[in-house]
Write a structure and sequence with these properties.
50 residues; mainly alpha; 1 helix; signal; Lipoprotein
C-alpha cells in the first residue's frame, strides 16, 4: 500500500474514534444530568492527595 493511503486510513480511524457521546458518562454509561455534583468540582479537588 502507498504511504499516503495508510495515512488516510489512519486519519479516518482517528476521526471516527474521536466521536463521543456527550450525554453519557464514558465509564459507567449513566446519563449526564444538569444537577450532577461532579460539575461543581475544581481541578484541584481531582488531584491526587497523597
Amino acid at each position: 500500500m502507498k504511504l499516503s493511503t495508510i495515512f488516510a486510513l489512519m486519519g479516518i480511524a482517528i476521526l471516527g474514534a474521536a466521536c463521543t457521546d456527550t450525554s453519557h458518562y464514558p465509564i459507567t454509561g449513566q446519563e449526564c444530568a444538569p444537577d450532577d455534583p461532579v460539575k461543581e468540582l475544581s481541578t484541584l479537588e481531582c488531584a491526587d492527595a497523597s
